[in-house]
Amino acid sequence: MSMRKSLIGVLGVALLAAVVFTLYTPAAQATSDKLAFDPPAAYLENERNTIAIVDAYGDGVVYVAVATAPKVVQPNLPPGFEQFAPFFGPYLEPPRKGTGSGFVIDKDGYILTNYHVVEGADEITVKFHNSPETYKAKVVGSVPPLDLALLKVDAPKSILRPIPLGDSDKIRVGQKAIAIGNPFGLEFSVTEGIVSAIRNNPGAESSLIPQLIQTDAAINPGNSGGPLLDSRGEVIGINAAIINPNGIPQFAGIGFAIPINLAKQYLPEMKAGKQITEEDVIKNNPRLGVTVLPAQYFPDKVRERYQIPDHGLVIQEVEKGSPAEKAGLKGAENFIYLQTPNGDVIELGVDGDVIIEANGKPIYGINDLRSILFSLKPGEAVTLKIIRHGKEKTVKVVPQVLH
Known about the structure:
The chain is an alpha+beta fold.
């Protein structure tokens, strides 16, 4: 091959490469992509699902605003200082304002939210997404110990967009979770994550709430009362609390929601106008039928003498006919009397069974035991590890609702 032919060949390849390069420069490619861009087809499947849910049910989430009127209040003096009350006259407590979230559950205008969002409010208003109007709302019923409140609003049915309630018993760790609410007063914010865990109440909320849904979907102050949704667009929880190791009230990847099945359990009574007390909640849940005192109440010398461990619940009394009696649990037969610093005398049963574990989890106080009992399914037994006269024993009990 001649040098001239080789040079022509090289130049030809170079020219072809230049033409190809010109045709596929980034600018040309971007123009081509822009012309071929099909928005619906470009979204990922997960994005399409989130957008569809927000479009379908987002308008069912409401902005809740609360206000208190100025009040004349008496000072709250510590014990022992009551005689100084005449020197501390009543004072005017200034009005307070707050915001939170809620969601519509039916066309009758019922809205679920957290009790702490509306607690003590003299005026409650709600605002719907994409609507400039505000509507007055009132608390119809509530379950303060479970942080639940039901509002009623007189609004046109055309703007009431109920969100379907799901089944929180079927939640799987790792599934998608969407939180919608009004964090820091910013109306209609959507965040997404997963269900991180289903936990026995870690103390983030009332101890009578047996379990909480943990999520990493961003939850901040103002999200309280808003819905946590699954990929079907159904409410699986009511966003209620956050945990932050720095003590700052803002998202740190750990948020908690009250399972929606707990709210569904009390909806009929709330719609009937009831305010359900802590005593009512306890009576409506399975119990062992025992009266107990924490082991920490007992002086060290008493615990040593009667072989009471350093933690657990000492059974004082067993109700007749109760699950505890049927399982053979024993109450105290011997008692001591102690005088408290303020002069009161208390009676302590010292030789009853001591519950130290329930279903493998250590028991330090009554709330630890309640958390486990309230999370059981009907007819499900709990395995208790007890100390009886210094010896360990395992007992199975099927808790029941006792009236």
